[in-house]
Each structure stands twice: as C-alpha cells, then as structure tokens.
Specification:
13 helices, homodimer, alpha/beta, 5-stranded mixed sheet, globular
Amino acid sequence: MTDPSPAGQHTLRRHNSALVLRTVLDTPGISRAAIAAHTGLAKATVSSLVDRLIAADLVAETGLVARPGRGRRSTGLAPSVTGPHGLGVEIGVDYLATCLVDLTGQVHDHRVRAADNRTRPPSRVLGATVRAINTALRHATAKGVPVGGIGIAVPGLVESSTGRLRVAPNLGWRELDIVAAVGGRLDRSGLPVLVGNEADFAAAAELGRSPSDGPRDFVLVSGEIGIGAGLVVDGRPFPGVRGFSGEIGHLTVDPAGPECTCGARGCLERLAGLDRIMREAGVWQADPQARPPAATMDTLIEHLADGDAAALAAVRAAGRWLGIALSSVINMVDVPCVVLGGSYASLAPWLRAPLAAELDRRVISAAWSPVRITSSTLGASAAVRGAAAASVQSIIADPDGYLTAAG
Amino acid sequence: MTDPSPAGQHTLRRHNSALVLRTVLDTPGISRAAIAAHTGLAKATVSSLVDRLIAADLVAETGLVARPGRGRRSTGLAPSVTGPHGLGVEIGVDYLATCLVDLTGQVHDHRVRAADNRTRPPSRVLGATVRAINTALRHATAKGVPVGGIGIAVPGLVESSTGRLRVAPNLGWRELDIVAAVGGRLDRSGLPVLVGNEADFAAAAELGRSPSDGPRDFVLVSGEIGIGAGLVVDGRPFPGVRGFSGEIGHLTVDPAGPECTCGARGCLERLAGLDRIMREAGVWQADPQARPPAATMDTLIEHLADGDAAALAAVRAAGRWLGIALSSVINMVDVPCVVLGGSYASLAPWLRAPLAAELDRRVISAAWSPVRITSSTLGASAAVRGAAAASVQSIIADPDGYLTAAG
C-alpha cells in the first residue's frame, strides 16, 4: 500500500537528518560534498544538517581527506565516539548485566553481577536494576560519556505497543510496567527507557555485528533454562504483531511429553532446556536451585570433551528436539539460517550434527537449499548489547527527535 | 534503515501516479481538488496524473458531485470497471479454476473444471492450463474486458525470486518453470505472468475482502488433502525470505506419528488432512484415488450433522492436531487470529472447539489475549481470486509501469 500522505517540511527535515547521519555511519570519513552527491540533497542543505549533527555531537570532523583529482582537500565526517551512548540492562534469571554502546556499535563497560532473580520478589529485583542503572550512569558521567537512552532486556513477553511485561515464566513474573517502575527512580530524569524481550535484543545484536556479509535472515535460538528465539527477516527484527514472537521454548514437540510451567505438555523447553540436559547428563544430581550455573556449564563441557556417554546422549537428544522445533519454524516462516546462541553456542560442537539431521529430514526446502547453522560469538552478552544498541538505534533513526529532547 | 537514495523525477512520478490511483480506489467519487487536498500534491500535478490514468482506463469520471458550501460542482473519479482485469488460474490437485478480478476487486467469470492433476504428467496439466487461460482470454475479449496480467496459483513451493516451482508434493511435481511453460503458448503475448503458492494467494484474498474492519494479522490455514497456510502480517502477505513460508502441513506434531510423503514422520498433514479424516470417519473405505472429492465432503458433513460417532471423533482429533500446530505458529510468529479455509471452513462447526481448547492451553499469550478463530467465506475459490487480485495489485502498485507496458 502507498502511504497516502506526502512528507511535510518538518517530516522532510527529520528524514533528511536521519539520511545524512546514516550516510556518515555507513561511510566514515565521507565529506559534505560526497554526502550531497550520494544523497542527491543540495550542498547547502547537507551543510546545515551536518552543522546540527555536529552541534549535538552525533557527528565529528575527522580532519582533511584527499579529494581524488583535485588540489584541494575537504573535511571528513565520522560518527562521534563521544556522542550519545545507549545504556543496556539485562535482567537475567540469575544475573543482572549492564553495558554501554556508542554510535558505532562499540561496546564499553560490560558488567555482570550474579543475582538469583527467581527467588526474590519483582520489587527487589527492580530495585537492584535501578541501582545498577544509576551506577552505570555515574560511571558514564565520570568518563564524560553522555547517555542518550536505556534499553532493558527481560526473559519474557513484552507488549510492543505499551512496553508492558505480560509474563516472564522463568522469573515467575506477571503484568509489570517496568518502564514506570524503573523510569521514575533514576538519578537522571527524562531518559527514554525501552523494554523488550531478551531473545529479540540478542537477535538484533547478532545482526548488528555483520551489516554487510552476515546473515540478514535467521532465527537465533538461545538456550538456557528457558529457550527463546529471535527472528530476523530481511535485516530487521520481527517482533510479531504484539511483540510476542519467538516463544520457541513453548513449541509442542512431543504432545505426550512432560508437563511445562506454562500449563501445557511437551514444550521444547522441557526437552531441550539446560535443566533437562544437566539432569540427563548427571551434572545436576540434587536441587537445581542450589547450582552455580557457570560452574555446571563448565562441568558439562568437560564431560562432553571427555566423551562421557550420559552427557553426549543428553546433548544429542536436545539437538534432536531442537531440530524438530526449528524445522517447524523454518517450514512456517522460511528463514534459511539458524544461529545458536546463549549456552547453545558453547554446546554447538555436539548439538550441530543431531540438529542438522532433523533439519535435513523435516524442512521441505532443505532438499534443494540446506539450512545453514552458525554459532553466535557474543555468548551471554548478546541480549544486553542488543538492548543498548536498540536505544542507540532510536537516536540514529530520528536524530532530530534526540536533538529536540536533548534541548 | 533509511533508504540512502532520494527519489528521482521518474521515480517520483511513478510514486505519485500510484498515490493518486490508490486515493481514487479508497475514496470512489473523490474530485481532483479533494485528491490534491488529501495528498498534498499540486492541483496541476493531480490533473495531469488523472488525465493519464483516465487515458489508460484505470480511472473513470463518474459525473458531477456536490461540493459542500459552494455553488459549483466538480467531477467525481472512480476506478474504471472496464479497466484492466487480472486473470487468475488455480492448478488444484483435482481441478483447474479460472476467474477475472477487476480494479475494485470484484470477481467475474469464475469457472471450475474437475481434472485429476495428480495422475497426469505435468506437461499435460500445463497444456490444459494454457487452454483454460486462452479460453478465458477469448471470453474476456468477447465481453470487451481487457486483461492486464495473469496470476497462477499452485499447491507447492514457489521461489519468489524466480517464480520457479520447486516442489508440489501432492501433485508429485518438482522443479518446473511454469512461467516459461505457459507464457510462450498464450494467444496473447507479452502479458505479465506471476506464479505463487495457493495458500499465500488465498490469504491475500481473505485480506482483500475486508480492508477496513477485517483482520490485518492472521494465519489462514487451508485444509484439503494437503494443508497449506498463508501468513498475513500488518495487512501484507508474508511469503518468507524465498517464498517458502506457510508449509504448516509439514510441521511435526507427533514425532512418533505416521510417515509422510515428504520423507519425515508425524507431519500435520498426515494427522489432520482430509485423507486421514475421511478414513477415520469411515467415508473412504476403499481406494482414495477413486473418490469424487465434493461428494465425499458432503457425505462427511451429513455424518457429522447426524451425530455419527466415528465422523465426530475423526474431526475432533484433526482439530486437536491442528491446534497443536497452530499453537506453535502463534507462539513463534505472534499472529492473533486464525482463519479456517478450504474444506476446514465447512468443518468449522465441529473443528472449532477442540482447536480452541489446544490454543487456549498452548499459546502463551492466550492467557490475556485469546486467539480469534474465524472461517473463510470464500471457500475453495479463495486461491484463484487471490491469484487474479495479485496481478491487479501489480498494476495498482505501479500504474506507470502498466501504462508503459501497454504502450
């Protein structure tokens, strides 16, 4: 459908501002004249827009660059590394993480604190979240880094229209307005806060790392105690109509399978999640609540590397169930690539073969176009990076809006 | 991402041409002045674009309409009912169908011929397809109706970048270039021919019927011998990265279930397709190849209406399996509405309760937002209508391209 309303003057400046900033980000070192040639905008328009972007420290001059075939040289432009950063926060099941991401996508100050968020009430977890954000803001101020917005990743279903958390089964949370609970208690008021699903943010981070040659269409499947997925289609995250897409952990893979915390039976999470793998592998013998997660993951990988039969069988079974679920996803949505994320990335050497066998067998299009399987190299930091990057992307998509908000 | 290239003059005229035509389609009877006010385009530009659209018989003048508050009256504009029509063709498993769709979406000349396309070689089926198209073109010419393009629906996976049919399991076809096989043998050369998946076209037809108040986000699931699905997200068909989306018939719903023609095990099609329902209901006792499909469907519905225990149990089981598959789709993609199409529409009174029970139980977001279930009223004609409408939509999306091609 064609948008029936034409662009007004104000909308046009917003659009052109974003166009110029995007051009600088894509081609660091580009001159004003080259931006004009590339975008078709008038040189005077480009100059005026660049001046505003420089004043807001979104763009910086990089010194003189040679102009081929001419005697004179012109000033190059690049995204400002001292410009607004996004602050990412991840409320994990058993940790709180923060990091900063600058305009170029570089990550700074990644910090992870262990925190058993399953056993504490939401109000206490959100209190700790506020403290973690305020600490990160203080560190940023001390280093002279401006923060332009905050992105919060949660392991649950977040309604995109309202930012409301509807349910986070592995935290035991329901119906929480995290923006309201956190936004009003920060040391700096007025910062935009956005809340999203951790797997969606992780998928966006995976995309952000490889703008040119990486996969543009994939499903990232992130395996921990819960299993989440993020769909990326044509280079864009696909959050679903209401923001609830990617609940791969609750795909039914065995209707006669074990009961799930969600109330259904035979969900993927129960058959291929870390709880199941660790138990089948004999790594968790006793109360799973008492385990230190990182240590058990190291133990599992040791057992696998040693060729322990129980560990190998446990991961092989998880790979098969994962393959059944991902075959359904690919048959339905048609994304040609799977990215293994979270703990699945560490298990990839053992997961890959049983997973590939199920995909080969069950994906209709695999007959002429095998599904590509890759592993994330971001590991557990993908979601918090993606959350920080999302708040930077909001600025890049609408620099005029940022300028107005920043005064 | 912002498109880094600005609109050139030629692109701009194409864009504005489409904008004006879309405005006339959305508001039949609108005047040139009102189009200018609505779009923000200059009156002279609108007049010149409208003149071109009238010359191509895409738009027609409808006589004088009153202008509130003024003495003068202006000429109204509407889509031309004698303008270019789309010719739709559906190659079904056991029929060939054709129809015409005009610029307003009205269907004309819907014809269905029984044809056992499963038992004949592809070359003979495509020969019959060419004859059906040529017959429809002759009828159109006799009635003075111009045909602007052809859309062909097939029950298989069609690669969107090439229009190539990769596989149609229920026809036993593989690797066919239908555009080449059909396009060169038509009585009229140069007509654009597009080929697509029948469920994708059916979903588009479902959308087209209710532009304002109908669902904009849904999964249409069309049950016959095979089971296909079409996803519509934010009012647009979602064909997947390569055009292979919607293969819901091959979602694994029971890993220990029966073998499928696709080579896998426990596919939905084997457990909820008409073959299974008819056998479980005792309607097909003998060789299913010998059955007349319409008659057996009538028989099944009689049995259901009579409260026959085997028929009721067969449809209830199919509804449960369908609910398991659709729960996976909704958990993964987040579309809040299911449209039952094809034979499932006729079975809806008996399918709905077991289907709804599984959705309630398995869809995470159903806890606060129950999945809506509706039935298609287009029945078996949805795909052929959608195919015809798709070729009309190509003209509407780019009237300048049509003008150029038409000379």
